[in-house]
Design brief:
alpha+beta; 13% helix; flat; 119 residues
Length: 119
């Protein structure tokens, strides 16, 4: 087995935290996010949350990843709304004649997943 591999045999990913502060929810949606959901891989969790977000009406991005320092595999990961936070103010921005419109709105919708060994 490759130690640098992101996937370990018989491991699962479990959701830790889910905040959904979206202004409008459709009356029915097939994909629900619940605390304690289990996925077989981080990619499966991403695809599920992305489908959920698309159905609700927002996009997601991969915010951070934590890795095991010794073995290098992913221990947790956070997916957030694409409009989370604000753009960083840079010194070069004062030289720009026309500023780009701010698209981020401090949206707090996110999901955190972590690796859990089966046992």
């Amino acid at each position: 087995m490759d130690i640098k591999s992101n996937e370990l045999p018989s491991s699962t990913i479990e959701t830790v935290f889910d905040v959904s502060q979206v202004d409008h929810f459709p009356p029915m949606h097939s994909n629900l996010i619940n605390l304690g959901m289990r996925f077989n891989s981080k990619d499966e969790a991403y695809e599920y949350y992305n489908a959920y977000a698309r159905e609700i009406g927002f996009s997601i991005q991969k915010e951070y990843v934590n890795r095991n320092k010794r073995l290098g595999y992913v221990t947790s990961r956070k997916f957030t709304c694409f409009k989370e936070g604000h753009r960083e103010v840079k010194k070069q921005d004062v030289l720009v004649k026309t500023q780009r419109k701010e698209t981020r709105t401090d949206c707090l919708t996110h999901i955190i997943i972590w690796r859990q060994s089966s046992g």
